Give the backbone structure.
Amino acid sequence: MAKLSLMNKANKKQKFKVRQYNRCPLCGRPRAFIRKFSMCRLCLRKYATRGMIPGVIKASW
């Protein structure tokens, strides 16, 4: 889990647009952020295996 202060800092509107960066809203992870789903790869995998994301199926064979 990320620091709460860093999550709040990422949500706050920055003075300059280039300073903005994406964080996962669920766990706060700054890396491996997938824009299409607006979450990190770990949360995407967890929710996809549980079937909680419509139209996404995790492959298993």
